[in-house]
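Lecture 7 notes: from sequence to structure.

We start with a single chain of 221 residues. Read the sequence below before looking at the structure.
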Amino acid sequence: MTSTVMRSADSADSAVRRCDIRLPAAGFVGAALLVAAVGCGGGDDTAGPDLAASPTNVRWQPFQGVPLPVTDQGPKSTADGAATGFEHSPRGAGVAALTHSVRLAVAADTQWAKVAARELVPGPAKDEWAINRVQLSITGPASPEFAPRLLGYKITGYTEQNSTVDVYAKYSDRSKAVHHTTVEWFGEDWRLRLPDPGSTARPIDSIDALPTDIVKLEAPT
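Now the structure, written as tokens:
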């Protein structure tokens, strides 16, 4: 997706000045972030949003045995197991990706339908997930053996309509993994978009070490 920055020439300047435009591609999982940096004879630079900015006023609240962040960027509300109300910004998208992916995974039998209704983008992927979830049973908090401990996230692509977010977590056996997620601005909130049923992309990969450039949101032990 391409961002174009246009500046109108000064009416007193009859010369046509050329602007150097740099468009660095960020192409993880097919997403692209194009940030235009324009320099026109000493004019102000125009850049895209800061994808590495950390959420503010971070607190931690447990959900089904897993600590989840509550920040100034969201969620603003939690009810019936579902978390909603995320800021329309990269920070809001990052916190939403962490929150939705965990809540969807560990929601109890009495919670998952409402979590899916309020935190997922409608469509075939959501429908297929619901069919599979009916066949499982979660009645209590997540077992410590399988409960993830969040470590942070990295936004790999961002627009005002959707964002690709890598979510990093650690498990009780000390293994680490990165979950490749997508959140979409839907119904005035960030919701998780599950992979299409026919997708062959890997939703999760094991890793040996964390990247140095992630936004750290490390859950308490």
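The chain has two domains: 1-48, 59-216. Keep this in mind for problem set 3.
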